[in-house]
Amino acid sequence: METAITLIGLALLAIVVAALLGFVAWLRTADLGRRVMQLESDIASLRRSQVPPARAEGSAASSHAREEPSAEKQKPNEEPDTGSASVSPASPPPTAFPPFLAPDRAPLTPADRARARVPAMAAASVSAQDTAMRENGTEGNAGAGGSSFEMRFGANWTVWIGGLALVLGGIFLVRYSIEAGLLPPIVRVLAGGVFAALLIGLGEWRRRRTAEDDPAEAGDARAYIPGILTLAGITSAFASAYAAHALYGLIGPAAAFVLLGAVALLTLAASLLHGPAVASVGLVASYAVPFLVSSDEPALAPVVFYGLFVTLATYAVARIRRWRWLAIAGAACAVAWAHVLSALGVPADAGYLAIYDIGALALAGFFFVVNLYPRNPETEEVKPDWMVSAILAAHALPALYLLQIDAFGTVSVATLFIVMAALLVMASEWPAVAAGALAAAVLGAFAHLTFEVPIAPASFAPDIASDPVIASALLNPRTTAHLHFGLAIGLLLGVAGLVGTWRSAGRWALAAAGTAGPLGVFAVSYLRTDTAGLETAFGLSALALAAAFAGVTAFFETRLPRLSFTRDLAVSAYAIATIAALVTGMAILLHEGWLVIGLALLTSGIAWVETRKPSPVLRWLAVAVAAGCCLFIADDPTIAGAALGTTPIFNWLLYGYGVPTIAFAATAWLLARRDRDLPQAIFEALTIVFALATVAMQIHHLMNGGDMRASADTLAEGSLHTLLALAAAIGLQKLQGRAGGRVFDIASMLASFVGFAMIALVNLIVLNPMASGEEIGTNALFNVLIPAYLLPAVMLATLVWQARGKRPKAYVTSAAVLSLVMLFAWVTLEVRALFHRPRLDWGLTGDGELYTYSAVWLVLGIALLIAGVFTRSRSVRLASAAVVALVVVKVFLIDMGSLTGIWRAVSFIGLGFVLIGIGALYQRLLRAAPKPPPETRDEKPA
């Protein structure tokens, strides 16, 4: 198993190193190619400008001969006369860090001038090699890319792979000596040290020899041999120093500390001499050494110091060479190292883990914050560095591991407070990383939540809530210790937030941490504590906290200069915290659905604050609070659960839905005073939804005797919901015409579509009393058919009247057709109810009922015709014609065969008189209509 793990580690390391080497080689080769092309272009331009065209051919050879000795005679201290400035491959990029990090440019030294000549000499060397290739007949291959691959493979890849082979060979040699027991431990360590020194010395000798013999090769991108040898030696030195203590116990922690520090300094020196590739690959590979050289009884202390010193070396190299990417990579490795150490740690190692957690955060704070940004809390405009803030937060979170390992002992608790204090101090003194204060608040709240709860990785269950140990610990903490622990965290966050808000430009984050932190700790204390008999104490504590926040808000509002950076955000944070604490106290003291009501009122408070201190953050914060209110209602739509009762109308549904409706309407109105943006539109939509939900929930409560779990499967309740949707469509369309805004328009359309769907599916099909057999009542006229069919028909007609010219034609036509269908259904079902009630699906249809259908439909057709005439609506007159045509079809197809005796005669006689009357009415209308002018009158006979 151990061999397999080792092979996997070696394979991963080889892949990473090979990828890095290939990428670096590609970068350097591409850079060299660009430089050669630029130099050739410059030389060609100079020759064209200095040599006359007539003498260009004859003087080229002599000019070239004269240029070579002049280059040899040029003194080292003289600057070359080049067309463009060149930079050494080892020189750092000038824009890797912010501008204020760039040191003042010093005069060039002789060594700098010598390095500046390297690219030109390297270009000449490459040009000479290309000439030789052409002379040997390889020009065609070069053009095809064959010689380029050959050069890369022979000059670059073989060197890198050879260096990797040296590193792995040294590691396998050490492993083989351990497994075979060939050499005693001290000899193995000394042999590793000698091997490391030999490689480092050989690399330095090669570097100096190359620089003296051929400066062009020293600057050539292909000259990796010195760096590779040094890299192999550094890795072997790390492995030997680590093995001397962790594997064999030949040296103690102090000696290991010194040796690892010396190797880290050697790595730093090597990176300065050999450039970024050697530094980055060497330092990244150094993190993998402990995984490749293992022991049956590993000690945590040297691993801790090893990780700190490797991190220190990484940051130092990144700072000197200004490689921000290397610093970020080192920070990621340091955080990953913290997770590894926590997984290996035991309670006895708490001290070492604390050293690592504090040390890693200190290193990150120094190199990413103290060393980069000026300490100036009064700076007014500071751009936040979110990357650095995230790095600091990531370094702080491993303190939670330590709390679990140490079981919230003195060491772990002290480490937690040191880490939190460090984040708060950096946020106050260096405003660019003010967001770190938010991480401190999250860290403190989560530490308080997990107080004495075994949630270390070994205790995780697939579902934490199902773990009886965790569930028991969450509900039964040591109350006094838990409260004291939370009080200390809350005081630290509150005081730091107060001081930072007063004196630091990062006050926005410090105010957020100083308010959200204490509120979060209070919430955790309340949720985890057995509050039997303590409800009043917690409620009064929340009110006291609200009073404290209110006092701080008033103090900063009057004393903090108005031009202070992010002043309004800080004041708003304390004002919002005041409202939140007040609502929390009210919810604790009053119980029931007051939490929902409090959250809804909180949105109005935030909107009021926003009118005084405009901020997009506050508008979206109000949306977030409203979302919390909606989540609580979704969890318990009855608001008060069993305490809802059976009292109609005046119950918790009215308060739990009605008050949020009013609060959201007030919030939308307050936000609209400044801007009608997306948050304001969201509150308009919430107002509509909660208003409709209030009525809908009251309907369900009323129709089911207070049983909110009953299904809405009656025609009466379904009809009321249909009427609600149609009423909403009419009302919202009216509001849209007065107030404007897309929200009312969209809501009106949605409500009408819902109403149309309910009519088609519920009223006409599913809950139709002819199909469901539901009783409609004993009264023939005043029964459930009126709200189920007549009132929807009337409301649809109103919607049609209101939507003409404002809505699409298809929308108006659909509403009109549904209105006629519902009116016809009501008339038909009322006739059925006249003969068969309370159930319409019972009994046979007699002659009198069949005749009554015809008579009533004729009356309906005549009524529609008269209405169409008076309203001058062609659509209504066409509807009348459709009803009359239906009566004609019924009389000739049904009544002729079904009716007998007098009923058949009366049916036809009545139909005849009605049709003649309709004809006479139309003839009168035609005579009364104005005639067209003579010149436009059709002369043809009818």
Summary keywords:
single chain; about 950 residues; mainly alpha; 36 helices; about 0% strand; elongated; disordered N terminus; disordered C terminus
Give a count of the beta strands, DSSP E runs of length 2 or more: 0
Number of helices: 36
Span of the ends, CA to CA: 106 Å
Fraction of residues in helix: over 70%
Q: What radius of gyration results from the CA coordinates?
A: 44 Å
**Coarse shape:** elongated
Mean pLDDT: 75
Unreliable stretches: 1-30, 51-147, 216-223, 457-462, 935-942
How much beta, percentage-wise? Answer: under 5%
| Biggest sheet character | none
**Which class best fits the helix and strand makeup?**
mainly alpha
Organism: Breoghania corrubedonensis
Protein name: Putative membrane protein
InterPro entries: DUF2339_TM (IPR019286), UCP035905_mem (IPR014600)
Keywords: Membrane, Transmembrane, Transmembrane helix
